[in-house]
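worker-03 picked up job from queue 'complexes'. Input manifest follows; four sequence lines, order preserved.
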Amino acid sequence: MSASPSPAGPRPYHHGNLKTALVEAGLALLEERGLGDLSLREIAARVGVSHTAPKNHFGSLKGLLTAIAAEGFRRHAAALEAGLKPADGPVERLHAAAEGYVRFARAHPALFRLMFSADLCDFGDPDLTAAASESYGVLARLAGRLEPGTAEPGERQTRMETLLWSIVHGYATLANEGQLAAGPDGAPVHGIADLFRHWPRFA
Amino acid sequence: MSASPSPAGPRPYHHGNLKTALVEAGLALLEERGLGDLSLREIAARVGVSHTAPKNHFGSLKGLLTAIAAEGFRRHAAALEAGLKPADGPVERLHAAAEGYVRFARAHPALFRLMFSADLCDFGDPDLTAAASESYGVLARLAGRLEPGTAEPGERQTRMETLLWSIVHGYATLANEGQLAAGPDGAPVHGIADLFRHWPRFA
DNA sequence: GCCGAAAATTTACACTGGAAACATGAGTGC
DNA sequence: GCACTCATGTTTCCAGTGTAAATTTTCGGC
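worker-03 finished. Artifact:
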């Protein structure tokens, strides 16, 4: 590959794959340092490039963060689908997706917060919105299965979608910020599935 | 010389009420500039004081933000209680509190985000935790009224509390970050009360 | 081989929060 | 009345941030 020069050779002037390398470095630093201590200069340094190099590809820090968030949403969508067994009924599938949602958020708290920070990301970016829609679509389809035929034609977001998203997202957010009472293992005492079971309609 | 605070006189060396003045300035700047563009130096400048003056009272920026968040939680608790009519039943009171929760979040988005940012605030601070508990208590009492006698003795956080808090907080957060489909007036098409009405148990 | 465009670099700037040394003055004990 | 104390603010400095502009290097098409 042109992107992988001889290991012993001097670092080439042109990186060859800077765009994706910066996103990956950003994702890695997000895990290590958290969102607050993340800096463009440090991401660039990790890739071995000057701190102004990202500008050519992303314009600004916000552009880079937007690209990172987009990749986050793609992985998020995959996490949602991960536990979905086609043989299960709509309720079981909902529970599985909800647990995937929360598991992803808790496994990658900094990335998750970035993904839902409208002032750090540019939600006008087509790539980001496409990735976010991909993730949202999983939840929306599950909501539709729970109430077939109730969505009005042309409706962008049903009440059931809003309700499900609110509860799952709220739980994940509160858990990540340390607001939910935690048991000895550090996890919240009530899992997200417990909440759904406590919710008569989907028990 | 004169201790009289004549309006035309030179600014005294000692402010006299810096602590609360800084918190109020911070709250005002939070409304105007948002959380991202908030700076300790600007808060200090608005009060007319050097940028290191806050250190004496708050230690660091995090300390100041913690104090601001605590004041936010007190106002938040007041907003929750605002629409509560004693004559109403538990369900009506829940709806009113939920709308108060969301209304506060949407009216003060930057403050609301600060209040739930564990990396910006110090949730080990007693004043902050007391204020946050005050706000949480309103919701917890409402949850208890919905299911009297179900809480196990000594239970810190019931499932019902977690469920209600998740849905309300998730809705407020998603709305603030512009993630919920909005109608022509900019508000989400489905209000928080619509979600509760859609939730069979509390329709 | 040459030349334009793309990709990185260097340099400079305004801004941030924090640390350290210093200045002020309000309050207290005598 | 007076001196001493010490909380409260100021000044100065520093490392670090993101961005802009001018410059250098390299790739790719002719």
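worker-03 released lock.
Residues 12-59 of chain B form a domain with the Arc Repressor Mutant, subunit A fold (CATH 1.10.10).
Chain B has two domains: 12-59, 60-202.
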